[in-house]
Each structure stands twice: as structure tokens, then as C-alpha cells.
Amino acid sequence: MKNRIKALFQIEFPIVQGGMVWTSGWRLASAVSNNGGLGVIGAGSMYPDVLRQHIQKCKAATNHSFAVNVPMLYPDLESLMEVIVEEDVKIVITSAGNPKTWTPYFQERGITVVHVVSSLKFALKAQEAGVDAVVAEGFEAGGHNGRDETTTMVLIPSIKEKITIPLIAAGGIATGRAMLAAMILGADGVQVGSRFVASTEASNHTNFKDKVVAAQEGDTHLTLKELAPVRLLKNKFYQEVQNAYAQGASIDDLKNLLGRGRAKKGMFLGDIEDGELEIGQVAALIHDIKPAGQIIKEMIAEYNAAKKDIINL
Fold first, then answer.
1. Concatenated DSSP letters for 15-70?
2. In order of start, what are the domains of the chain with their CATH numbers?
């Protein structure tokens, strides 16, 4: 049977790179695309002119498919969407908003649309909106995810049971065995985020990469649900958030504590104490920094070996 994600994106392997803020620039996206996956530029941390530069550089660096991820909660949203169309991007991944708002706009222009969801309810709404595929992101994931804390192992089969469009699993996937597990649960492909944070091509700061590699089990926590749920590495800023909760902080208090540029400070500028460090639980399984192509090669090799192990059970 032909893999639906490989066919939809015209890629060799059903691996989608996460469009992570301050991490997923053109270097990472082109490296993933050049090695058989779908590279993704993360527009969430970019002004329109910066996004345009990244798209143009990515086009120059790869002849393969790549996408742009756009969280629909930024003030420059319309300008970002215009840049995507003007630069003839073929695949868009939307998140953090209503897929009905932009899906027709893109599809009328021949652009494939994928939407990120964290629950069956939102998966059904995305399908109703007409998207071409969904990324279902479990509780384990880094960055922003669902308030209901549904794990990937529960989320994927529950969504697979109810939708007909292609399904991409995300959250806790950094190895070939995890990829195979997600596919067995019903996914047509996987989205890998945290593992690519610790890649040589990722644009985030070396301090952040080193912090991810050093992470142990229990070093991350999902918090700030009142604003937008985000999984953070535990550091000084994280402890300040916990102290604020203990003192009965209001939503405004939390907004003031988060302030502006907190994620940039941590992930891009390398302030690992006062910055916001977004990463998935799977950081505990990431032990080194290596090229994106090597990460993909090792994942596929482990995936194929794991398939043989299952056949022999």
C-alpha cells in the first residue's frame, strides 16, 4: 500500500520536521528535505521579510519539498500568509487557530494545507475545514500542546478511528522505534521536533542544544495553560513560574512574568537560566548533537530493524 504522507508531500520518508520557533530556519529545513523528509521553516519567530529570506534561501539549498509552519496567533499573520503565497510555497502547516480561516485561501492557490491538533475534537474540525492532513500532537510534545494532556499513544488511535484524511503523529518521537509505534497505532507519518533541536543545522543557540542533551527524565513540565500550554525545561525562569502559581498569580501576572522575547532569550540567545526553553519529554532520550541527515538515516535504520523484530515475535 502506498504511504499517504509520502505521496502527499512527494518525499522519500514519512518524516516531517517540526516547525519550531527559533530553531527551524532554512538550514535545518533544507537539510531535512535533502535527506528524504519534509523540512519545515518555523515562521512563528519571523517577521515577514525574514520569512521571505528563509524561503528564498531554502529554495536555493534544496530541490525537494519543504513547508512553512505558521502559528495563527501573531499580529503579522496576514503579511506572513502573503509572503508564503508570493514565494510560491507548496505546503503550509497551520496551528494555534481555526483552520477554516486560511485553508480555503491556500487551497484555492494550489497549496497543500496541514493543521496541528491536540484532540479528537479539533481533528474533526480540521477535517471539516477541508485540510489535506492533520498533525496530532500528544502531551509529550515540546512547545505548545493540548490542555487535556492526552498522550500520543491514546491520541493517535482515537483520531485514526474517526478521520479519513492522512494523520501525522507528533509528541515523544525521536527514534525509529517510536516512529514504528506511531505508525502501528494508525499514523501515516510522524513529526519530529525535539530531536532536530539537537542538530547541527538548527538555528537555536548551542547553550540550548547542550541543555537538551543533558536533560534527564522529569526535567520538563507542561505549564502556563492559562496562556498557551507549553512544555519547558526546568530552569530559573521555570521556577519563577512555579513560584508565581504558588502565590496565586493571575493571568495578567503570568503574562507580565513571561513578558516579550522570553523564548528568544532562551532558545536563540542562549540564556538558559532566564529564558524560556521549550522541549519535549523525549529530551531525556537525546544524547548528542548531530547533522539532520544522520538523524534521519539512524531513525530509518532503527525503524526497519524494529519492523523485523516485530515480524519475528
1. EEE---TTT--HHHHHHHHHTTSBEEEEGGG--HHHHHHHHHHHHHH-SS-EEEEE
2. 10-203+285-311 (3.20.20.70), 213-282 (no CATH)
pLDDT tens-digit profile, the chain (313 residues): 699 999 999 999 999 999 999 999 999 999 999 999 999 999 998 999 999 999 999 999 999 999 999 999 887 899 999 999 999 999 999 998 999 999 999 999 999 999 999 999 999 999 999 999 999 999 999 976 777 889 999 999 999 999 999 999 999 999 999 999 999 999 999 999 999 999 999 999 999 999 999 999 999 999 999 988 899 999 999 999 999 999 999 999 999 999 889 999 999 999 999 999 999 999 999 999 999 999 999 999 999 999 998 876 6
Q: How much is the pTM?
A: 0.96
The CA distance from 61 to 64, in Å, is: 9
Question: Where is 305: in which H helix or E strand?
Answer: helix 292-311
Which helix (H) or strand (E) element contains residue 238? helix 236-246
Residues 2 and 11: their CA atoms lie apart, in Å, by 12
Measured CA to CA, the distance from residue 26 to residue 200 in angstroms comes to 13
Q: Tell whether the torsion through CA atoms of 307, 175, 167 and 187 is positive or negative.
A: positive
